[in-house]
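ok trying this again, last paste got cut off
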Amino acid sequence: MLYVTENYARGMAQKKRIASPRVVARLILYRRLLREMSSRGIGCIFSHQLAKRANVTPDQLRRDLMNIGSPGSPSRGYRVKDLEARIEDYLAAAGPQRTALAGLGDLGRVLLKHASSCGGSLRIVAALDEEPNFMESHLDGCPCFHLDETAQVVERFDIEAAIIAVPGVLAQSVANRFIEAGVQSLLNFSDSRLRVPPDVFVDHMDIDISLETFAFFARQHAPLKS
């Protein structure tokens, strides 16, 4: 579930050449759907067909694609491979982001293993934790350090983004360490809302809210018991 800080979202809206976080999230979904279609041998698709698969309106999809100068047109349709390539070029324009992971508990280890196995636009090059057991060791090929070394790690590995997977009580102090070291993009998996400067991007991935939202709607759709 995407929660972007209000100040950052407002600043992004003023930079017309940069898509908003919600547009980027939709583009990532379109790319995933196009990859699936390409693997099944589908060569061409119309905007209303792709919009239905993505659960957005055709107008919304066309606006998103126009913003990145996509090949094809609503009347003639889009070549699946060409559209996938255009979205990929747009999303990967800056190259893989050198990322640090803070927190090596159960969630942190899952994130690290997933990132090391699937590649993608985030490359975790260093991990940090408050437990000294991880110092001078490696997990899934990633070097591990103590959180006290955050500034040195950011400088040594030229860190551009950070994933925060520590308990909520530690999240703000960990975020502050990264921000003070010059990192301006944070992905927060804790249940704590971070306070950051307006020019810092934060994506709050609140798993608890997602689970409770799911549970609420699951109850609404559950069959009545006599």
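PB: full thing came through this time. The chain is about 45% helix and 15% strand.
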